[in-house]
Structures are given as structure tokens and as C-alpha cells.
Amino acid sequence: MKVDHVLILAAGKGTRMGSIGELLPKVIWPIFNKSILELEVCYAKRYAPDANIFINLFNFKDIIKDFINKNIKYFEGVTVIEEAKEIDIGGAIHNMAKEVNYSGNLLIINSDQFLFSEQKIVELGLEKLQTADSVLFTYEVNQRDGYSTLDIRGDELKGIVANSELSKGSRAQTYTGMSLIRLEKLEEFQGKSSFFKTIANPKNNLVKTIEISGLEYWDFGTVNRYHESMFKTLSQTTSSFYNFLRKTKSIDIEKNFGQSYGGDAGINLTNESQSIGSLEILLESADSNDRDKNLKNIILGKRVVTAN
Hints:
Low-confidence stretches: 285-297, 301-308
Distance between the termini: 55 Å
Number of strands: 17
Oligomer: single chain
């Protein structure tokens, strides 16, 4: 078995990115020299070099499409699917499945997370997919991390456990957002639906899981996690993620924008020399048109503020 298609989920509102997320779509927030979305495409090609890559868009789709067109060399061969209305993750997968007549094996990737492991996780997932409808990649978290978790018996998914239902300080498996789906096993569906309703519903489908060991899990999905991950990246220069950024030319250790590229002195991601405070990140503007001029003064720090 092999991965035939990859879907990068990029249609969200970015509501967890604070006030900055209302101006700058999360998928084009910078991770040093490249956007999250550009890196997700590189990441998809790393795991499935011969697969067809799809990106779904809804919220901010015009801004994101414009960004893709301006950086087209990083998106060559990628198919963009524009959604006419909000259809959630389940609906997005069905929408993409129609493009390929519900055939082949699909790898799902979230547009704000990166997983690295010593295991050959995709190969292991494909092996397990031979006797399942879908395979979810999981890892262990603490209840304090705020994630919902999975009810797993053996290696089969039986249900979802809300974080509020967990005992304080308990540990359990959570869904990483990365999964493999046998599209021919899906019952065709049109409209809005959740992932665990029409894609990986343990009541209707055989959903198996793989716990990823030795996992590096890099999460840029909220404003606080983005901030934490940026500084964490610079302090873990032997990590797989740091090496990935070096190989994709997303990070240049020699580069200095007039302010320290890392450490406690702040991170300046613009081409302008500006003084910023400790543990602050000065974000790069999405583009230079009038609507986005104020983005040049957006600072992400211990608290989020927008400079006047």
C-alpha cells in the first residue's frame, strides 16, 4: 500500500490566534523565513513524495490564494480546493474525495502541526490500514495540556473523551491530527460534518490507532503555542524540526535583523531594524497593500498587543 493523496486542512478561522489572527491567516504566519503553509507542503512531500497534494480553503481564502500565487514555486503541483461554505473537517475530506472518485489512500495533515519520530510512522500506518478503514496517529498527553483524548481498546478506537471528563493530572492518548484514510471505505456524504462523524466514526467504521513513540510534536495552532514553539525551536538546535527548517531554508542561523534571532532578546521577522522587548516576536507583514500595512507593527509577546 502507498499514500496516493495528501490533504492539508487549511480552511479554519484561526480564532485561537487572538486579535492578530483576525488580520493574518494562521497558515501564512511565518516560521522564520517561510510560512506555515509552505512548510506543510514540504512536510507532506517528505512523507509522501509521489502523492497528489490538496489544500482546502474557506476562511481568508482570497488572502491565502493571493499568497500562494505570489509564492507559486513552493506550491507547484498542489491542488487548491475552494469551499463554498463552512463544512468542517469531515465535509472537507468528502469534498476532496469526490475529486478523486473516492479512490486511493489519503494522508490527513493539519496545517498548524508537525510530527517527527524515529519510527517510520507512515509505513507503519499503511501496514495497519490493510485491515482497517482508517488509522489515527496518537500520542500520550497530560490532562493539563487541555486536549480531548481517545477511548482505545487494544488498538481500536471506541470513542472520544472530552478533556473536562478526565481526572486531573491523568494521562491518555490524543489524536495528533494526522491520519490515514481508505477513501473507498467511506460512505459518500455531502455537506457539513465532523471528522469523527463521517470519517472515523468508531460506531460505523473500523478505526485503528498507532501510538507514536519518541515523538517531537510541534504545535503552532494557538497564539500561545506559536509563541512557545518559535522560541523552543531556537533552543533545540539538535531537534528533527530544527533540521527540517534548515533543510527547507526556513531558518538561517547567520541571519540577524538588527535584533537577536533568538534567545530572550526577541525575534524580529521583518526586514526592518526595530527594537523589540524580551520574548517578543515582531511578525512579518502579509503583503504591502493598504489593508495590511498595520501588520508591520504587530508584536506577539508574553501578551498580545498591536502597536499604533
